[in-house]
Amino acid sequence: MSARVRQAAGLLLTLVLAGALAACGGGGFSSAPPTPPDTAIRSYVALGDGFTAAPYAGQGAGEDGCLRSAENYPALAAQKMGLTEVKDVSCTHATTNALTATFKAVKGKPALPAQLDAVAKDTDLVSIGAGIEDHDLLHEMFRICLVQPCAPGTTFYTQVLDEVGQAGDALTRAIRAIQAKAPQAYIVVVGYPRLTPPPESGCKDFPSQPAGADRDVVNYLLDQLNEKVRSAALQTGSGYVDVAKLSDGHQLCSAEPWVHGMSDQPGKAVAYHPLEAEQRAVADQLVAQVEQR
Question: How far apart are the two ends of the chain, measured CA to CA in Å?
Fold first, then answer.
């Protein structure tokens, strides 16, 4: 090869390398920083039962029979986060089955679509609170256990504890269904507040108890349900709002209770469901959870 040919080949190689280095930002790497993932929250969907819908905790919203409050924690949290794309399909008395199947809230109203239908592929945030209405657990825990003994070892106690486990499993499946539908969404699971005061409180918001009944059993069963709800969050990599811890000291007969008493009051209250103060506290905690994700 002549000197002239070698010189031309060397020049060509230099030009090729220079072009390649320029394309890579010099030094073989791009000078532009990688594009960060888009973590902005724009769309929010709230799913759940009456502890999310919060019947009569402020002005009502909607005519579907769900007794959903316009000032429940999803509405308050959305306002704090400046969100305008919000779908709240929570419904009083909804079970975990209502998350994935049609649900009829009250007689005379049409059946509601599965709550999961409100979740879209591009949904950014989903909150979910469900389980206590499964197998009529709320009734069993806070009424039956207070008027007949259901201490550990009894058939009824074992049955309720098994139903608590089933509710937790159903919630886990529902969360995975949400993840399959909206894989980029941040999901926050919301637990249940403390409702029952300590036995020594002398609270009169409960029926008289027969010999052998133990009000601590009710607390224990609620704690077990919250543990299953927490476990569902952990298993699915979701956030969790510990409402039991948040509401400690605000049970019935406390100086500032966060829930209604044991009696339904048509047009005014649903037994044991949350008051405005509880919803404000949960909203604050939900926002903090989203900001810390």
Answer: 65
